[in-house]
Design a protein that fits this description.
The chain has no helices and 15 strands. It has 169 residues and is mainly β. The relative contact order is 0.12.
Length: 169
C-alpha cells in the first residue's frame, strides 16, 4: 500500500481500539490511517502546511496525538470529526518534539532540541504541561514506550542509553 500523497514518508504509527493503523506522514502535513478490513488509506490534513508530524500515540478514546517536529507542537486529531487542536511545546518552536506515548490517557513525549532534552507531560483534561530535564541530556529520544506497570521508557539514541521514568501515582 502506498499513501495517496506523493512523498508522504510514513513514519511513526500506532493502532487504535478498532484495529485501524494510524501513521504520521512526515513528508507532508498529514496523518494517515489504514482501515483493517478494506486496507483503504485515509489521509487527515493538518491545518498548517509546515507541519511535519513525526511520532504518534493513541489514547483510550481513540484520539490520535502527534508530535510536530518541524514546528514544535503537540497535536490532537479526532479521526471521527477530522478536528485538529494544537499546543506549542513548552520549549518553543525549535524544540523538535519526537518520541511520544500515552500513559493512562496522559500524553508523555520528549523535546529533542531543548538543552538538555526534556520529558514533557501533557494532561488533556487540564491542557497543562509539565517538563523535566532528561538525566544525561537524552540527546534525541526517537522512540518511547510504556512498561506494563506504567513506567515511561526513552531510547536515547545519541548517548547510547535507555531511560526508565517512574511516575508517582
Amino acid at each position: 500500500m502506498t499513501p495517496p500523497t506523493q512523498g508522504a514518508r510514513p513514519y511513526g504509527m500506532a493502532v487504535n481500539s478498532k484495529g485501524a493503523v494510524f501513521f504520521d506522514e512526515y513528508g507532508t502535513n498529514k496523518i494517515g490511517s489504514v482501515d483493517p478490513k478494506t486496507l483503504e488509506i485515509r489521509e487527515y490534513p493538518l491545518p498548517d502546511p509546515a507541519s511535519r508530524p513525526r511520532r504518534i500515540a493513541i489514547t483510550s478514546d481513540d484520539i490520535v496525538w502527534y508530535t510536530d517536529f518541524a514546528r514544535g507542537y503537540l497535536g490532537r486529531l479526532d479521526p471521527a470529526t477530522g478536528k485538529v487542536s494544537e499546543w506549542q511545546s513548552p520549549s518553543g518552536p525549535k524544540s523538535e518534539p519526537y518520541g511520544i506515548s500515552s500513559i493512562n490517557d496522559v500524553i508523555w513525549y520528549s523535546e529533542s532540541n531543548a538543552t538538555p532534552n526534556t520529558i514533557v507531560r501533557f494532561d488533556p483534561k487540564t491542557a497543562k504541561f509539565q517538563t523535566w530535564p532528561i538525566p544525561g541530556g537524552g540527546n534525541i529520544v526517537r522512540n518511547t514506550s510504556v512498561t506494563p506497570d506504567g513506567k515511561f521508557v526513552l531510547a536515547n539514541s545519541l548517548v547510547n542509553t535507555v531511560t526508565l521514568v517512574t511516575i508517582q501515582k
